């Protein structure tokens, strides 16, 4: 037995959960009266005349954008009892034109242009019908949650979890009878969500060049801190695509939304590391810090979701692509109180150019690099005089950048080049 709870936990409704291909069905307990109507489970052909006021008197939901067929959600006709059309019927064809693969908007346009009389080929789905009709006795509305990029999160109360469709702001809180039941449902739902997500990513990547494909994208739980020392987690959608990192408020439905994204960084401008300050030692491996020169996002991956190895491999690829696309990066610095420019180059390594004398003061290969340290805008670099692992004969070079943010970006860039060198294909 399961319950759907209100956000304050005061109101509960007994429900059954069912997983379909792309949706989680939430069906209120109908008290054994769920078989009160019978519709043949086969294709039927229905002829509908256009109403005098316009339209055919049916409302539709679903569509390709939701990975659902075109479903009749309402019947708004005076002759509804005689036309043998039902809520929950999927429209298979409109005047012999298949609706498979159409969006809801395209299906609506197909109906508008169907003439004064339309021939519908329909097939009934009882499970969908139960979601679209109110239970006559209890008046409780059944619902479904689309699984594509749904946000699933455990709750502090050990028997409960919440699930939220990416296209909705409403959360569905599910309370199970025990912790074991909750864990089983979480694993099952996460697996179903991941299948939907993988299929969508594959679709988006279909015509993309290899260097511009989506490597990873999913919801993360962003940690937010408040003045009264309370911590909350809020959903944030993170995507690694090509050489860039994207942050969204909701899952992108098309590649166009990546072009319109407001928060985008190249991977070499960022750092992704395990969160060393996480106090939950059991889950430390799923907690990360995404840092840019101006922002820091502490987040966790949902338990039961994608593995950390998948994220880290995607991050390594994203960083590598950003570095080889960049090839070299030059920073304005002060060295020994003189204006200079320090270049990090994929082939050359590190090179400091003195602007006044117009000559290079020093050059070091990546194999000679040992470590760095930051103190505000000052960055200290340690190099070996020879390409050896010996700790002797090391040299300290200190440069000063314009501000702390630039110093941080400089270090991120160094780390990106070094990590990319270590994973670069020969």
Automatic annotation (TrEMBL):
One of its GO terms (cellular component) is cytoskeleton. Keywords: Cytoplasm, Cytoskeleton. The keyword Cell cycle does not apply. Residues 45-126 form the PDZ domain. GO terms for molecular function: structural molecule activity. It is found in: Cytoplasm, Cytoskeleton. Its main location: cytoplasm. It comes from the Eukaryota. Belongs to the syntrophin family. PANTHER family: FI16515P1, SYNTROPHIN. This is PDZ domain-containing protein. It comes from Varroa destructor (Honeybee mite).
